[in-house]
Amino acid sequence: MATATASRLAVLAPRQLPSAAGRRRHAPGPGFAPPRPRALSAAPRGRVLCLAAPAPAAASAGQDRLQKVPISNIRNFCIIAHIDHGKSTLADKLLELTGTVQKREMKEQFLDNMDLERERGITIKLQAARMRYVMNNEPYCLNLIDTPGHVDFSYEVSRSLAACEGALLVVDASQGVEAQTLANVYLALENNLEIIPVLNKIDLPGADPDRVAQEIEEIIGLDCSDAIRCSAKEGIGITEILDALVTKIPPPKDTSKDPLRALIFDSYYDPYRGVIVYFRVIDGTIKKGDRICFMANGKEYVADEIGVLSPNQMQVDELYAGEVGYLSASIRSVADARVGDTITHYSKKADHALPGYSEATPMVFCGLFPIDADQFEELREALEKLQLNDAALKFEPESSSAMGFGFRCGFLGLLHMEIVQERLEREYNLNLIITAPSVVYRVNCADGETVECSNPSLLPEPGKRRSIEEPYVKIEMLTPKDYIGPIMELSQDRRGEFKEMNFITESRAKVTYELPLAEMVGDFFDQLKSRSKGYASMEYSLVGYRESPLVKLDIQINGDPVEALSTIVHRDKAYSVGRALTQKLKELIPRQMFRVPIQACIGTKVIASEALSAIRKDVLSKCYGGDITRKKKLLKKQAEGKKRMKAIGRVDVPQEAFMAVLKLEKEVL
Ligand SMILES: Nc1nc2c(ncn2[C@@H]2O[C@H](COP(=O)(O)OP(=O)(O)OP(=O)(O)O)[C@@H](O)[C@H]2O)c(=O)[nH]1
């Protein structure tokens, strides 16, 4: 049985990154006709699961899973792992082996059912599945709650962990413990979960499960003497995992007599039914038709439909303490049923909400502008639709002389940003210009006021501000010892403050730095990977705001300021960034018929300057030989034409130029 040393817990402060995933989910995959409910028989109160008859099509597969199971036979668990260590593949195999999803219905990575996720091979949202497993002739109900695998969504991970009693800790037996393994395992320990170590990918020639088991014992302090060796891909060790879930994870406590408290661990917007809320009943009982209330925002609804996830939705009459299910109550936006919130009864409210709720706070902002100005309204509609399903997405209109009308949007992190952008372009057919992402600065103004600024072009004038604070993150990097040097160099270059370094094994170290979030937004992760030949991994959490000597760097193209290219940089880096940025823009902006100066300025002072030379037509080509005065006249006419063009000419700045600020980091450093 897994145990943890108390000292390990102290190593990581509770995650402060207030992140929550946008719930983006498609309707249940093909092969899953929505279940038609029939007469639902109420289960006796107390220690049993409810009963329901599913639609005939789903009946054979579903009925078993809806059978009565005493609470002592329920196990709620999740899978935690570093990215790519095989969490989704293992989840698929568990679903397959328990007959929850028939093999013919099985698409690879069933739980990752969003196209984008499938393409990128990453999990960005949660989903749950109820499985039936018979061990020693005793039927068990295993509720798997899937967790997202990216740091942007760590708040969601923590909420899904809070809905479980145990976790499978999946570690790639060829790679060993990575930064995210650690971060997730500490989150699980904070939630008092029973942890079952699983060494995956033993089929790989490079797998060394013994070494990795030892590594887990040394680094995390988990007893790995009976760690399960498995290959999710080949289906090896899956039965052992199912047995361990039953024998090692404790059943939920029977508190069905208490006032209702159910923890929301996911929600998504269904255009026909409104928001579907996924929850775990912690205390009490919830019935179809109950008047419920969300404790964080006090809003009340009637639960029109409740059910279980198998993994398609199947209606039931009642859900008891310990169970996992869904409800729909004509809720209009996921923002009203936020992950982490507590559901209670309107007439018999619980005294306290469940702990751990936090609002989604966007960390990264960028401007989104339609290339075609006519698409502005379409962009607004698309953002509104996405927001229905993504409580963390924030946006407000923004206009700029260079870019026209668009929106300033806030995201949890870079992955969240990329996903939203990609969905806008793919699903809504919008052509967008996206400005470089910025973090949220806090400006202490001379008049004593503090304003938050997520748009560099809106930074108060130097005379009006006393100081600027920027968000800092603690970043923990795990790396083989050979790459410690390059990684420290990278962190130092990004204004990192060294905190500590521990050798977690003989050959691997954990290096901790604190650095400005703005230095991490951009290519930090890519750089970390390239400098460590792909071996290092990282994890970060917000540590708060700190004052820094920052200045606003403006860009003028052809004498016009382009607000969307303004950035906030550290004073010491301003000159090198300005120089590199003007050079980069010179490469990226196409030459015009007239000369275009590109300048970087701080206030009114120009600190770097480049110029695009004009495309010149050889107006003298036809004057073969000929009179000098005629040639002069032609050249003069050409010069006048160019002057006029320059005055009225508009320089179209291509999309790459707006991302130039990010790309030039490497050249500046
Ligand atoms: N050889 C081998 N490959 C595996 C095994 N399990 C998973 N993989 C492969 O590892 C890759 C990552 O697996 P996923 O299941 O997507 O990993 P994940 O942890 O869910 O990743 P995220 O969703 O990004 O968190 C895929 O290419 C899988 O096919 C295994 O047991 N053996």
UniProtKB/TrEMBL annotation:
Q: What is its EC number?
A: 3.6.5.n1
What are the entry keywords?
Chloroplast, GTP-binding, Hydrolase, Nucleotide-binding, Plastid, Protein biosynthesis
Picking any one GO biological process from the record gives: positive regulation of translation
Per UniProt, subcellular location reads as:
Plastid, Chloroplast
Q: What class of enzyme is it?
A: hydrolase
Q: Does the keyword Chloroplast apply?
A: yes
Could you tell me which Gene3D superfamilies the record lists for this protein?
Answer: 3.30.70.240, Elongation factor 4, C-terminal domain (3.30.70.2570), Elongation Factor G (Translational Gtpase), domain 3 (3.30.70.870), P-loop containing nucleotide triphosphate hydrolases (3.40.50.300), Translation factors (2.40.30.10)
The terms describing its cellular component in GO are: chloroplast
Q: Which SUPFAM superfamilies match?
A: EF-G C-terminal domain-like, P-loop containing nucleoside triphosphate hydrolases, Translation proteins
Look up keyword Protein transport and say if it applies: no
Q: Boundaries of each Tr-type G domain copy?
A: 72-253
| Family of the protein in this entry | Belongs to the TRAFAC class translation factor GTPase superfamily. Classic translation factor GTPase family. LepA subfamily.
As for what it does, the entry says:
Promotes chloroplast protein synthesis. May act as a fidelity factor of the translation reaction, by catalyzing a one-codon backward translocation of tRNAs on improperly translocated ribosomes.
The protein in question is named Translation factor GUF1 homolog, chloroplastic
* Origin species: Paspalum notatum var. saurae
